[in-house]
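$ run holo --ligand "adenosine-5'-diphosphate" --emit tokens
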Amino acid sequence: MRVAFVASEAFPFAKVGGLGDVVGSLPQALRKKGLETTIFIPWYWGINGYYVGEGHFNFAGGREQFGIGHLEHGGVRYVLVGLPDFARDKPYGYEDDFRRFVRFQMAVAELLRDFDLVHCHDWQAALLPLLRNLGWFPGRTVYTIHNLAYQGIWGSQDFYAWTGLPGETYYGGGLEHRGAINLMKCGIVNADAVTTVSPRYAWEITTPEGGEGLDGVLRALRWKLRGILNGIDTEYWNPATDRYLKHRYSVEDLSGKYQTRAELLAEFSLEDRPTLGVVSRFAHQKGIDLILGAVPGLMELGVNLFVLGSGDPNLERSFAWVADRHPGRITYVQGYNEPLAHRIYAGCDGFLMPSRFEPCGLAQMIAMRYGTPPIARAVGGLIDTVRHWETGFLFESMDAGGVWWGVSEFLKHPDRKQVALNGMRQDFSWEKPATEYLELYRGLVAHG
Ligand code: ADP
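-- output --
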């Protein structure tokens, strides 16, 4: 069985969030089970691949050229798709994202002739199931929703100029949603199977509260939707071998964790108090503003905060401000910082994750693996991975009071070390999810 992955991120070449982790690690887990995959990603600026040639695709009456690169990482083959618009240093956040990713997919479609199955990830790959149905390439398609909040929506005026597709596909191909082009919907409608990254989220997105306007479509197509819980790369995320930690540790001996903690607190001049870590994109989804609202209460409870993240400039400014007002109690480091993230997961006593919604969430699993119990909102994949009072703490209310309650539960627990050890003993590897994906692929290809 020949399987292709198509995505906009793959760690370590491009990562903005969990999508990059998944695309970077699931193929390696599949490989251990005997399935070789090929990963197609844009050739972003700075990725060191070797050029193997060029390809062409037709777009809106013209013919466009793209470069093709190869590289291998961890035994997995990558194909890099080189379009001039991708030679920038971050994967998204540009005005022409819609246009760039439509073209990326048109280019990838030219390279998919020899695959039995194409696994497409999020809106940046959501046009491909339609292109398959239009006969651009053969094979079955799986579409995975990593985050329903980002749908790839664009105005329908100048449809042909933006998509290069015949006008009848706007309605007939499932591209239209509420008067605009919606790539997420297109992927859901056209794929042979739709998955999302936790069982709980698979249910939540069929409800008006969690459906982001697509719950009707998802309810109608529930028969082909299922949730497969993400795993984490347990070799990379391993406190016993972590390259970013000076003091390594395991479930048998936590002394390295305590040393990491002492050094982290000393380096950032934090008082010796229970310290809660945050490693997050600063987006509405993540409920970072709820932490801000809870700061006075948290200070009174006696905890420190160690926050790493960037995104929404208002939240960045606010955190810089509260950190300034609470020296010795709150540290805020702006930016994306892989080494520091590892030290926070290892060196903190608890991990705060007050998400408004959470498709799966990897950060809480990483925190548990590092013996740092998560204090998380009871939503989506957080419900599927954290057990209240046993491996972490869950709170319901989506407000500062909820955060405060979660933290006070954490402080109340008589044996936090046991909670930490319970978390470290969980199996969050890709072993089980990889088997589920493999069964799904096999089923689809066998009935193709
Ligand atoms: P999402 O994909 O919604 O951002 P997840 O919890 O699924 O959230 O995945 C987040 C991943 O990104 C984790 O690996 C986390 O460690 C990492 N991450 C998020 N923000 C930062 C940051 N500022 N610096 C380093 N790593 C980060």
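-- notes --
Residues 431-446 form the longest helix (16 residues).
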